[in-house]
Site-2 protease family protein (Dehalobacterium formicoaceticum), 209 residues
Amino acid sequence: MNLSNIWELIFYIPAILLALSVHEFSHGFVAYRLGDPTPKLQGRLTLNPLKHLDPMGTLLLIVAHFGWAKPVQVNPYYFQGDKKRGMMTVALAGPFSNILFAYLSALLLSLMLREILPFNNLFALFLQNLVQINLILAAFNLIPVPPLDGSKILAGILPGQAGEFFYSLEQYGPIILLILIVSGMIQRIFLPIVSFLYKIVFMATGIPI
């Protein structure tokens, strides 16, 4: 491993920890605001990464550039109003927070590249990693396969029995996900999503694509 790779790893890991923490905190915060005390009782309303790390999901993010955190447990029976819509909102919160985080990181990077802010090579590298990791995490979780957020979002959009069908797949989700990962299909699904999010974020912040 050369020196440049070491520096990349030094900034890559903190970016992963921040992205995972923001993602799960957002799930917990929205659920709590909807009336569910479970995330707070379990200590998940924090940006402390030690509360959110899933060993396998974090390892995959480092090695394979896709992964996940330890899911926040949510009890929709506490939600005020429509519970199905509440679950969809909680699910959306994680990917949305990562896209927003990526946008803010890219905005800072853009200001540095345009010399509006002082340019610093190490900080620029860190910002690049933040953009990459947050968009990867958002794109991966938008895949509509249980237990990923995309399945709950789709279940909230689909009417009646169609939505319930996705919830019923929850018990088979880890097996489906494992098959997709081992077969390599997972990258074919989420890489176009990553590419699309990159274009949106870079266009919004004025960074050349």
Summary: The chain has nine helices and no strands. The chain has a mean pLDDT of 87. The chain has one domain: 3-205.
